[in-house]
Each structure stands twice: as C-alpha cells, then as structure tokens.
Amino acid sequence: MRQLDAPQQERVRRDLIERTVPAGAFVCRKGEPIEHWFGVVDGLVKISSVSADGKSVTFIGVPPGGWFGEGSLLKDEPRRYDAIALRDSRIALMPRATFQWLLDSSIPFNRYLLMQLNERLGQLIATLESDRLLGPDARVARCLAQMFNPLLYPELGPRLEISQGELGFLTGLSRQRVNQALQLLSRRGLLTVEYGSVTVLSLDELRTFEE
C-alpha cells in the first residue's frame, strides 16, 4: 500500500473485502474460478492439494501479511490448490478487476509481484529440497525459516503464533516429532518456544540447519 499513489490506495481500500474463515474451513478450493487475490490479515493458512486417491501434500504456510494466488490470476486458469485456514483467520480479498487495474497502472505493484513470484519460487524449491534431502529436525527449521521471510511477510517480526500441531500439518510430521525438533532447535539457541508461539533468535541458522 505504501508504494501506491493516493488514488490507487483509495480504490484498493474501497474494493477490498474482508472475510473471517474459521479453523479447518476453505479459504478457496482447487478447481474454482479465480475471482480474487488473497491476503492473510490475521491467522494462518496452508496451501495444499489432495490427489484423487486421497494423498495430500502441503506446499507452504502463509502467516499474517502474506498474499497468495497471484499466479493463478496471471495465468487465468482454475485454481490448482486448496487454501485452508489452520486457525480462525481474517482474509482480505482483492477483486480480479482491481488486481488487473493495478497491474496495468502501477509500476511499483508490478515490481512487488515480480519479487513475490521470485521469492515464492525459491520457497518451493527449498521445500522440495527439505522433503527429499533433510531429516525431520531440519524440515521443521526450514519450514519456520520460510514463514519469517522478510520480503514476503515484512510486518511479521520475530514472533509467530503457531502451534506444534499446525507445524505438523505444514511439515508432514506428527505433533510429537515437531515437539522434539523444536526442543532441539531451542537448545541450540535458534529459537524459543512458548505455548502456541515460536520466537526466532537466529533466522540465518534456521535457514541453513541440516541435522
């Protein structure tokens, strides 16, 4: 918003819709037509997909301050994933027409989208690497590091409200195994764990943790 001019900010404020999505409910579904760009105002959303035989995979978690769905808008194709609220969440919806208008009229908005797409690509590559090459402790570390990306989520700060069960959904691990990983990372001085939240002390070390 800060990079938009006054008329653009005014239209965005006028057009944005806010919706409350309860925990476990869909923000959007795979196969739906693309009508909005989604932003997480508060809460936590997972982006995932389920195969025809019931196998599921989680791609990323989106904390407060994050936007998602721009790729589908740019390609103008049915949505290829589900977005599910892991907790009660407030979601901002920017209509397709507003998104396209900004795309046509704002150079800063286009730069932001390029950065968003580039960072998201790096995030997905890192997730693939973690799943195929790293053990469970490192997967938890890398998953947390991704959600503290200062370019994708610049307002987040060092503390994230996330439960061990929610981390389990994002990493494909049990809550008990996530707890073991968090305790190890805490002993190493990379983070501190409180009930329902994690505070990162060394983001660089989380990003490179490999044990």
Outline the structure in words:
The chain has 211 residues and is of the alpha+beta class. It is 44% helix and 25% strand. The protein is built from 8 helices and 11 strands. It has helices at residues 6-15, 70-75, 96-105, 107-133, 136-147, 164-171, 175-187, 203-208, and strands at residues 17-21, 26-28, 36-42, 45-50, 56-62, 67-68, 82-85, 89-95, 159-161, 191-194, 197-200. A 4-stranded antiparallel beta sheet has the order 1-8-3-6. α4 packs antiparallel against α5, α5 packs across α7 and α6 crosses α7 (175-187). It starts with 5 loop residues before the first helix and ends with a helix.
Oligomer: single chain
Q: How are the strands of the largest sheet arranged? A: 1-8-3-6
**Average of the residue pLDDT scores:** 90
Count all strands and give the number.
11
* CA-CA gap between termini: 40 Å
Tell me the major beta sheet: 4 strands, antiparallel
**Count of individual helical segments:** 8
Structural class: alpha+beta
Please trace the helix and strand order, writing H or E for each element.
HEEEEEEHEEHHHEHHEEH
Could you write a compact summary of the structure shown?
The protein is 44% helix and 25% strand. With 211 residues, the chain is of the alpha+beta class.
Topology:
Layout: H1 6-15, E1 17-21, E2 26-28, E3 36-42, E4 45-50, E5 56-62, E6 67-68, H2 70-75, E7 82-85, E8 89-95, H3 96-105, H4 107-133, H5 136-147, E9 159-161, H6 164-171, H7 175-187, E10 191-194, E11 197-200, H8 203-208
Antiparallel strand pairs: 1-8, 2-7, 3-6, 3-8, 4-5, 4-7, 9-11, 10-11
Helix pairs in contact: 4-5, 5-7, 6-7
